[in-house]
Design brief:
By secondary structure, the chain is α/β, with parallel strands linked by helices. The protein folds into two domains: about 5-250, Rossmann fold, CATH 3.40.50; about 255-495, P-loop containing nucleotide triphosphate hydrolases (Rossmann fold), CATH 3.40.50. Helices cover about 30% and strands about 25% of the residues. The chain contains 16 helices and 20 strands. It has helices at about 45-55, 55-60, 105-115, 120-130, 150-160, 180-195, 230-235, 235-240, 250-260, 330-335, 355-360, 380-385, 390-400, 415-430, 445-460, 475-480; strands at about 5-15, 25-30, 35-40, 65-70, 75, 90, 165-170, 195-200, 215-220, 220-230, 275-280, 305-310, 315-320, 345-350, 350-355, 360-365, 435-440, 465-470, 480-485, 490-495. The chain has a six-stranded mixed sheet, with helices on both faces. Strand 19 and strand 20 (about 490-495) form a beta hairpin.
């Protein structure tokens, strides 16, 4: 009989300051060596289950909790977090929240150093983990220079270096490109072959379905369905949609479109729209004495962004695609004026927008939305973005995004997907002519992804132009009109 390694018995939990329970009478057994997939809508309780298993509830996230949790013989309520370091490893949805070092090498070895392993053992683990996870190109770099997907890979490596019995992953693919998702799949497969117990909270189901032994579906803090891997793989798109789940299969056309192995680049020239001219930027600017160097296309490989000229159609949703670290976020930041050293001019309807003026012309939702949540309630956050405060319009936007019931909740008390929707609501409220979104659906379930698509479509129909950096094939199929591929900071393909 397979031994149980983790047991949750009749747990009810409510975060401090929250109006609703995050978990409601949840009981769950996890078998040793099992790969368990948790799915369900945003805010359904998946992350709270992860936090029960790693001890963050109740030791870090305080609130009201009843019931018992046992992990590998440890009573979680009576076990200090440091005692679980070699037992449970967690890869969080936002990898920044678990970094302790400033460089990649230091982050990978931090865990083994922290538990007092010998230098030889530490270096051996680092070498093995980096080889298996193909991290050679990320070593020796600052964590602050990495893309979201690259940070996620380093977070996985830092957990793997501890060799824990149980590995927990909370939305691990949310910021990954197609190639990185394949690598993540292979990493999890390797852990599975090693006999690790793996619990994955995930919205993107298609890449992981072949590795799961069992699938649990949650809704409103309760476990509502359970499937074997075979039964889950047989669910139709209609079945998953009813449960607010993303489909288990993806249109191959969009997978190929997002793959960096697809080198069939083509450029459809647009003559009428928003014109971008002379966008040049480098993260490695040389020191200057008398005046700042003005970059041009002739600076070649020294540039992080090099787009001499580009026209995008007005009133359309353009998916900005490309692999992790290739310059998509840099492109968006430069377009909206956040990178002060970026040259470039936007021309729209014979008006020029340079540097600071681009900030008023555009509005950007960042990849890590925690950077742009400032107030103490969801309602105030959305009102803050409005030039003319309109409470009725604010409530309509929140209702469209399924957030109205949280209008008085502090944004930082929400789940990752809910925070993402708050930031999107703020962008919609701003009413800028050019709206920029950096991975807006990374933490969203199927129904909320569709809602975001509907709202972006309404914005486009009302005349706004929307640029969306995304790795999400379902979202592109749902609502995008065009695709702009960025490779090494260059616009290499534009398709309509």
């Amino acid at each position: 009989m397979t031994q149980t390694i983790a047991q949750i018995n009749n747990v009810t939990h409510r975060y401090k300051g929250a109006a609703l329970n995050s978990l409601d009478s949840v009981s769950l057994s996890v078998k040793r060596g099992e790969t368990l997939l948790l799915c369900g809508a945003s805010g359904s309780g998946k992350t709270s289950v992860i936090r029960l298993l790693n001890g963050l509830i109740p030791h870090y996230y305080h609130g009201d909790v009843t019931g018992e949790v046992t992990v590998n013989g440890h009573d979680i309520a009576r076990t200090a977090l440091y005692e679980l370091a070699g037992v449970v490893g967690t890869v969080f949805q936002n990898p920044r929240s678990q970094f302790f070092s400033v460089d990649t090498d230091g982050e990978v070895v931090f865990g083994p150093e922290n538990i007092g392993l010998s230098p030889d053992e530490i270096l051996s683990r680092k070498k093995t983990v980096c080889r298996k996870m193909h991290l050679d190109n990320l070593l020796g770099r600052s964590l602050f220079e990495l893309s979201g997907g690259e940070k996620q890979r380093i977070a996985c490596a830092s957990v793997a270096a501890l060799l824990p019995d149980i590995i927990l992953l909370d939305e691990p693919s949310s910021n990954l490109d197609m190639e990185s998702m394949k690598m993540l799949h292979d990493i999890i497969a390797e852990w599975k072959n090693q006999g690790k117990t793996i619990v994955i909270s995930e919205h993107r189901l298609w890449y992981i379905k072949d590795l799961a032994d069992r699938v649990i579906c949650m809704d409103k803090g309760r476990i509502i369905r359970e499937w074997s891997a075979e039964d889950f793989a047989g669910l139709s798109p209609e079945d998953t949609a009813k449960l607010k789940l993303r489909p288990t299969n993806i249109n191959k056309h969009y997978l190929a479109l997002l793959s960096d192995n697809n080198k069939n680049d083509s450029f459809c020239q647009i003559t009428d729209g928003i014109h971008l001219k002379d966008f040049y930027f480098s993260y490695h600017q040389k020191p200057y004495i008398f005046r700042k160097k003005k970059y041009s296309a002739s600076d070649g490989d020294t540039l992080s962004l090099c787009i001499p000229e580009l026209t995008v159609p007005k009133g359309k949703i353009i998916a900005v695609i490309g692999s992790n670290g290739t310059g998509k976020s840099t492109f968006l930041r430069c377009v909206c004026g956040l990178e002060k050293d970026c040259t470039g001019v936007i021309v729209s309807e014979d008006r020029e927008y340079r540097k600071n003026k681009r900030i008023g012309f555009s509005y950007m939702v960042m990849q890590d939305v925690n950077h742009q949540l400032f107030t103490d309630s969801v309602e105030k956050e959305v009102l803050l973005s409005m030039k003319d405060k309109d409470e009725k319009r604010c409530h309509k936007i929140l209702d469209d995004l399924g957030l109205l019931e949280f209008k008085d909740t502090h944004p930082m008390a929400l789940s990752g997907g809910q925070k993402q929707r708050v930031a999107i609501a703020s962008a919609i409220a701003a009413g800028a002519e050019l709206l920029l979104f950096d991975e807006p659906t990374s933490g969203l379930d199927y129904s909320h992804m569709k809602k975001v698509g509907v709202l972006l479509r309404k914005l486009a129909e009302n005349g706004s132009t929307v640029l969306v950096s995304t790795h999400d094939p379902e979202f592109i199929e749902e609502c995008c009109d065009c695709t702009l591929k960025i490779r090494n900071g260059r616009a290499v393909s534009f398709t309509v």
